[in-house]
From TrEMBL:
InterPro entries on file: IPNS-like_sf, Oxoglu/Fe-dep_dioxygenase_dom
The Fe2OG dioxygenase domain, residue ranges: 245-362
Molecular function per GO: metal ion binding; oxidoreductase activity
Superkingdom per UniProt: Eukaryota
Similarity remark: Belongs to the iron/ascorbate-dependent oxidoreductase family.
Keywords: Iron, Metal-binding, Oxidoreductase
Protein's name according to its UniProt entry: Fe2OG dioxygenase domain-containing protein
Length: 380
């Protein structure tokens, strides 16, 4: 079994993986799919789009209750395969998680307050050395058109460890993962508490998801205990939380970009292991409202090439599979390209959106073992 450090995968991802996803034969496999099957790559367009007049299918995510999930003796293989397997959407959601509704609300309500802080205060929260992967970030990302994304802001932090390492060499070599958290302790002290509380909960539930993923995968391939997804995530020091806030747009500015299927977040496939997501919160004039456009939301490109809208409840935690997990599991668990579409129309004018994602990923020096049977990008 050849090994490759996670840093190499990340470097490769930044150069080539962004427009690719791994594809498995469309034939329905038994549960679990046959081991050691070859995986192939298919290029996907960065500018995938669909006419705003064409209705697209809406699919509910596969759901697992928290009480099922925490039972290690429960056989959840059918649901894991339905959500994460070769014919799944690469996403499932967990219901009835204790304390999650209040922790979600506490944090998401702070995103607009953070964005409204004075510019000089937010400047102090920026971290150029980490390529803006810690602290405040606004206007640093680009839209698919190549223009700066000024409608979206982000705040990044590791919800589990404030200072993952003091090693100067590591911080210089892996600035996006080894940097230290930056909190607005004077301007918005409650942000740190709310961010860590929600991030820790999503991580803990994510470990339970990972455990059942390992149980499913181990039925089809040989895997040492310390090579499983759960253990890889448990020993990692570089998980990253991202609090997002989409500024309210005026109708004229909003209409410029809202025709695009990926108007709020461009098409991409997560490169890490497992991503935990909250349902978005929408506000107008600081009052919470329902999403003003039923066509807005998360869109996924399926294995057959169809684009569908995926939905889950506001009191559920959704989890998506990343490319690293797909490779390590030899395709038993599959990642899918996805994007986020902004609401459009008069009702969407002046509406802000808040959400949170936790990117669960291997440690910067984790040695990942890939099967010799997987020939993806073997030239590397």
């Amino acid at each position: 079994m050849p090994s490759l450090q996670y840093k190499s995968l990340l470097h490769y991802n930044s150069l080539l993986f962004r427009n690719q996803f791994l594809n498995v034969s469309a034939a329905s496999p038994p549960s679990p799919p046959p081991p050691n099957r070859n995986l192939s790559c298919r290029i996907t367009s960065q500018s995938m789009s669909c006419s705003s007049e064409t209705p697209l299918p809406t699919l509910r995510t596969v759901t697992i209750t928290y009480y099922e999930l925490k039972d290690k003796d429960a056989d959840l293989s059918l649901k894991i395969e339905e959500g994460f397997g070769p014919n799944g959407l690469g996403i499932l959601s967990i219901t009835d998680v204790p304390e999650f509704p209040s922790l979600r609300r506490n944090l998401l309500c702070l995103s607009s307050r953070l964005a409204a802080l004075p510019e000089d205060v937010k400047k102090e929260l920026e971290d150029p050395q980490s390529r803006y992967n810690f602290g405040w970030s606004h206007g640093k990302e680009q839209l698919e058109s190549g223009k700066p994304d000024l409608l979206k802001s982000s705040f990044y932090a590791n919800p589990l460890i404030d200072v993952p390492t003091n090693g100067a060499y590591l911080i210089q070599r892996y600035p996006s993962y080894c940097g230290a958290n930056i909190w607005p302790q004077a301007a918005l002290p409650e942000l740190e508490v709310a961010f860590k509380a929600l991030g820790k909960l999503i991580f803990d539930v994510g470990l339970m998801v990972a455990y059942h993923c390992d149980q499913y995968v181990s039925r089809g391939m040989k895997m040492q205990k310390d090579e499983g997804l759960e253990q890889i995530l448990l020993r990692s020091r570089c998980h990253k939380g991202r609090l997002l806030y989409y500024f309210p747009a005026q109708l004229s500015n909003h209409e410029e970009n809202s025709d695009s299927m990926s108007s709020w977040c461009g098409w991409h496939t997560d490169h890490g292991s497992l991503t935990g997501l909250t349902c978005a919160m929408f506000k107008r004039n600081d009052v919470e409202i329902s999403c003003p456009d039923s066509a807005a939301g998360l869109y996924i490109r399926t294995r057959s090439g169809e684009i569908v809208k995926a939905t889950f409840g506001e009191n559920e935690i959704a989890y998506q599979i990343g490319e690293t997990t797909e490779i390590l599991s030899q395709g038993y668990l599959c990642a899918t390209p996805h994007c986020v579409r902004a609401p459009k129309g008069k009702e969407a004018s002046g509406v802000g959106r808040s959400t949170f994602a936790l990117f669960m990923q291997p440690d910067w020096d984790e040695k990942l073992k890939f099967s010799e049977d997987v020939y993806i990008h073997k030239e590397l």
